[in-house]
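ok so I'm stuck.
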Amino acid sequence: MSKQTDQQEAVVLIHRVWSHSEAVKAVPYFRSLLRSLREHWLDMQMARMRLRLMDSRPGRPDRMGLIQREDIRQQAARAHEQFEETSHELLVLDVHCPDPASGLAVIPFDCGADLAWLVLDLFAPEGLVGWRRHAESPELLRPLASLPASAIRQ
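replied:
not stuck anymore, here's the structure
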């Protein structure tokens, strides 16, 4: 990840720390929200791309072109609003999704004395695919089997 992403992650405020068992039980709901977030993000990107394409055409648009452009602009605005609502819903639960297109999210959980993150993958059949401690690199992904027993029993 870039330095900017690392800096953004460093200032994330955590209001709720999930236990491992709570997070596992909530995976279906998290996946549903993550799927919606990704779809809204893709819709927003598609509408923006269509607007750029229309704007790059040479000459002045005709009446139909202006109407189509306004429709696409409204689609982009709706998709952005839905994206923001879903993003807010995830943030209220303290589930963070740094890149909606990837379908990955991180869930804060209590790993003894350390804050750690469970990694949720929208496209993985099991949902949770690994974990890492907060102080570790965001690219690091430890297998769930390596979770300390104390973190699983909570």
